[in-house]
Amino acid sequence: MTESAAAPGPTQRAGTAQIxxxxxxxxxxxxxxxxxxxxxxxxxxxLVSWPDALCRALVDRGLFVVRFDNRDAGASSHxxxxxxxxxxAVTRGDYASVSYRLTDMAADVVGLLDVLGLPxxxxxxxxxxxxxxxxxxxxxxxxxxxxxxxxxxxxVRDPWDARREALPVVLEPPPTDxxxxxEQAVRFERLIAVPPDVDGARKRAQKEFARGVDPEGxxxxxVAMHASGERTHALAACRTPALVVHGALDPLIGVRAAxxxxxxxxxxxxxxxxxxxxxxxxxxxxxxxxAVGDIVVxxxx
Length: 301
What we know:
alpha/beta, Rossmann fold, 11 helices, disordered N terminus
């Protein structure tokens, strides 16, 4: 695994890490040597889905923050030429069109820790990113000293009370036209976020589009989730300090999934925000940041 990097500032660094066959784009913020937190993005999301202000607040809490693009997203490697993902076949148990699984995406996270010289870190994963983080804890327990599963679930076979109108959010491919992409981002924000941050969603989408959009990349990530099975029983063997955060109004992954995840993880703390949807709303940042800080301190003690 090799690294190339450019340093835009004294506390921020951007670079790429070659991890096996894929190149992972990443940014770090904060003081190297401080307790590390790795932010793992959700389906088709990029590192910019973690707001700069949230990252700076985590740094102000005394943390070293790492955010990155999953494979098939943003500036990381895209598996161009891979078999076209066939969701219907995958749901029938035919995985011939699956290019990778969550275990491979978890290995990307651990490879990034290696490149950055981090023996272990706390992981904060949103939605699919929470599933990747859970997989890291299961398969590489010594590399994780804290887990935060945000708006996520211990598997995808159960629809977790997803609302019918929310399903197209998961299945609709991202447009390759800039105007259509921004319009889709705003529409999705209004559907899944409580309260919706339309201006923030539009600005994030502008950054995402500039960094690269890949409709088949989203589909490959989606079938990777479906081909990866359930984690409930495996999570029961985990001893990593864990926090499960969810919005009671989440239309994509119902709050029942949070209760199932917390019940599966021994000693996990469950934090449910009654007025939040699938996205972490800004009004809950202070409590979220404090809770993440507590997990990091507890995991390192």
